[in-house]
Amino acid sequence: MSFDSSPVPALNLVPFVSVDDMMQTVLDIGVEEMLAGIAAYIEEDFARWEKFDKTPRLAAHSSVGVIELMPTSDGEEYAFKYVNGHPKNTKEGLQTVTAFGVLADVDSGYPVLISEMTILTALRTAAMSAVAARHLAPAAADTMAIIGNGAQSEFQALAFQGLLGINKLRLYDVDPVATEKCAANLAGRGFEIVRCASGQEAVEGAQIITTVTADKQYATILTDNMVGAGVHINAIGGDCPGKTELHKDILLRSDIFVEYPPQTRIEGEIQQLDADHPVIELWQVIVGQREGRSSARQVTLFDSVGFAIEDFSALRYLRDQLERTGRYENLDMIADPDEPRDLFGMILRAGAQR
Amino acid sequence: MSFDSSPVPALNLVPFVSVDDMMQTVLDIGVEEMLAGIAAYIEEDFARWEKFDKTPRLAAHSSVGVIELMPTSDGEEYAFKYVNGHPKNTKEGLQTVTAFGVLADVDSGYPVLISEMTILTALRTAAMSAVAARHLAPAAADTMAIIGNGAQSEFQALAFQGLLGINKLRLYDVDPVATEKCAANLAGRGFEIVRCASGQEAVEGAQIITTVTADKQYATILTDNMVGAGVHINAIGGDCPGKTELHKDILLRSDIFVEYPPQTRIEGEIQQLDADHPVIELWQVIVGQREGRSSARQVTLFDSVGFAIEDFSALRYLRDQLERTGRYENLDMIADPDEPRDLFGMILRAGAQR
Question: Per its UniProt entry, which superkingdom is the organism in (chains A, B) (predicted)?
Answer without folding.
Answer: Bacteria
